[in-house]
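User: Is it possible to get a 3D structure for a protein together with its bound compound? The compound here is 4AD. I've pasted both below.
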Amino acid sequence: MRNETYIGEISKHKDKDATISGWLYNKRSSGKLHFLMVRDGTGIIQAVVAKNDVDEQIFELCNDLPQESSIKVTGNVVEDKRAHSGFEIQVKHIELVHKADEYPITPKEHGTTFLMDNRHLWLRSSKQHAILKIRHTIIRACRDYYDSRGYVLVDAPIFTPAACEGTSTLFETDYFGSKAYLTQSGQLYMEAAAMAFGKVYCFGPTFRAEKSKTRRHLTEFWMIEPEIAYCDLDGNMDIAEEFIEYIVQRTLEERKEELKIIERDTSKLEKVQRPFPRISYDEAVKIIKDGGLEFEDGNDFGAPDETIISEQFDRPVMVHRYPAAVKAFYMKADPQNSTKALCVDMLAPEGYGEIIGGGQREDDLNVLEEKIKIHELPMEAFDWYLDIRKYGSVPHAGFGLGIERAVAWICGLKHIRETIPFPRTITRIKP
Ligand code: 4AD
Ligand code: MG
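Assistant: Yes, that's possible. Here is the predicted structure of the complex:
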């Protein structure tokens, strides 16, 4: 058995009989007519059941058909300019595949906890459906960007022997009697791969034991990480801005309908065009202080700080050269000022904050060994990583884009939990 007819392609069946295999999304009845809204994952179409046109038991069936029952609806496909799909079905027959129990999600307002507990069902609702289709498009655009520019996809491992992004957010697991950690980032492996292939990227799930409960943090999130040999910080920023412009414009082109369903103000996204502003950490600190927020020089930015910085611009802003002390061990120090790192964070507009983190990597063996010691990381876990600086070390750079942060911004969502099919947060591991 294989379904052949989808609502998304219903125009092919104009003025012919067709069978839609789907689920009952909604229903309204008036006397001798039932109006069934049927969805099949590719769209929603109205199926009109007229008492005079169908067998009596088919009409009766519709009297008592719970939402989300699975049905196969057969009838004539007629054009209807007012309908969302442009068509409706004049029903001749309905096959009931499964009569659903009373469906817990109704058009009335539900609390977020209830909806998240029912995430496996909530995915069927039109807004969630639209968000996840946009996510799909963003992911495809991310891959297309690198695939069409000569990057090689190199998958990074999930089990790792050591921290990449600081020891406080590591998930530890038993690995046949010794310790392993779930990866926080594929970066270190991409650095090795860049020396083999020149330009590479990885895309996969990453894990952070984030203890804080915020609108921006998941414990499991997806990251795409390009890494480029013979590339410095400026070159890295050039790639990051071209990449973000590309994925936003692709989404605008390909997901007009879904952006409308979620009521996204797309005029904001249309402004996401190169060049993006580039400001130093010191300039960003000035913005925070001018905005009236208290800020201690040398600190990393918190969410309110990022919000005030990103609100100054109508497109993403790249903040570079943070204090080395607040950044990861692998960052190269700025030769102009060794207290600063050659790093960059990209902050999305409209108060969304950091979507990208990256920079130029330390390529000197001795300096890197020193950094590992200062950060109190286990040297023996990094011997292979140090080899990259022993055998043909070159300047190199890269970055990571958090997919869910990007989806939240592009969709204009307040909270990151709706950007991933089954979110994992400090308080949620089910469903
Ligand atoms: O800034 P981060 O920690 O950078 C790295 O992991 C680098 N090793 C990447 C690289 O250079 N290859 O994380 C990168 C991005 C952030 O900008 C953010 O978008 C996302 O990953 N991110 C999270 N997204 C959701 N939940 C979390 N807990 C996240 N932590 C980071
Ligand atoms: Mg970061």
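The chain has two domains: 7-98, 119-419. The first strand starts at residue 17 and ends at 30.
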